[in-house]
Amino acid sequence: MSDRVIVVVRAGALTTVQDLGRPGYAHLGVPRSGALDPPAAALVNRLVGNPPDAAVLETTLSGCALRPRATVTVAVGGAPGPVSVGGRPAAWGAPVVVPAGELLEVGAATAGVRGYVAVSGGIAVEPVLGSRATDLLSGLGPAPLTDGTVLPLGTPAGPPARVDGAPQPRPPAELVLRVTPGPRDDWFTAGAVRDLTTRAYRVSPASNRIGLRTEGPALERARPGELPSEGMVLGAVQVPPDGRPVVFLADHPTTGGYPVIAVVRAADLPAAAQAPPGTPVRFVPVRRR
User: Fold this and answer.
1) How many angstroms separate the CA atoms of 270 and 264, rounded?
2) Which residues, in sequence order, are CB contacts of 147 under 8 Å at separation 6+?
3) How far apart are CA 265 and CA 257, in angstroms?
4) List of residues 6+ apart from 132 with CB closer than 8 A
5) CA dist., res. 272 & res. 252, Å (int)
6) Which helix (H) or strand (E) is 114 found in, with range?
7) Which InterPro entries does this entry report, sorted A to Z (predicted)?
8) Whole-angstrom Cα distance, residue 75 to residue 120?
């Protein structure tokens, strides 16, 4: 057996394998999936010399602990938090060498929600439909990690970056989401459309990789009943029967029958991935392009 593997000693609250996802299969009912914070995942890959499509680990709040069987270079980014190797403090946001058999400990996030761990060579689990990403909705890709999971590693593609640390945006104190109205804003009263972009919302603890749920004023319908199921896109702001907006993230369903009042600009979604429960949310209207 190759020693190019890494053993999960502590899986944490929810740690999954993620890459750029599997776009192009929505017509088959398959979500895109992939890293919720793509810039953070791309940066840690670049720091260890991986190509941008290499698979990384996405942690949630509590980090993880890993033990490689061969010497590897790792980088931890996304949500900031403590990092140690063999019990000694190590750099966050920079390449770090982890000798064979040493324990890499990624501690709980001190801000934000999702951390990213890149390992030189990338996580080399078997791809499904061209991607190694874990999709919590469809069940495609590897299962969320558990203690004792052994992950194969690929062959390093290049040398690590020569930096002491790479700047990364801090998790938002206020989540500002630019939205384009529609396509079903006419299913809501004028007051509800106005409330969406003028009233205060907060990130709900019920948020996950499928959608960022909000707490705040319920949006009143102008029409009763439900739509026939129609296509859903990344960033769609769907309004379920309780009237609280849900912003669809990477593992969102590809169809749905609740009306979509607006769509969030894709560039604003990485910040949504890092907004912990209770973060204020503001929807800002922008014109259709």
Assistant:
1) 11
2) 8, 9, 10, 11
3) 21
4) 17, 18, 19, 55, 123, 124, 125, 126, 141, 142
5) 14
6) strand 114-119
7) CT_A_B, Cyclophilin-like_dom_sf, PxpC
8) 9
Cα three-residue angle 171-131-43, rounded to 5 degrees? 35
Side chain identity, residue 93: G
Question: φ and ψ at 42, to 5 degrees?
Answer: -65, -40
Amino acid residing at 49:
G
pTM higher than 0.90 for the full model?
A: yes
Task: Give the number of other CB atoms < 10 A from CB of residue 226.
Answer: 12
DSSP strand E in 120-165: where? 150-152
**Cα separation, 63 vs 81, whole angstroms:** 8
Write the single-letter amino acid at 124. A
The token duo for 137 is 């909705």
β-pair partners for 248: 211
Instruction: Name the residue among 195, 189, 193, 198 with its Cα closest to residue 181.
Output: 193
Partner residues linked to 59 by β-bridges: 115
User: CA-CA distance, 190 to 224, in Å (whole number)?
Assistant: 15
Give me the residues paired with residue 16 across strands: 58
pLDDT digits (tens, 9 = 90+) for 182-224: 899 999 999 999 999 999 999 999 999 999 999 999 999 999 8
Q: Whose CA is closest to 187, among 243, 146, 232, 132?
A: 243
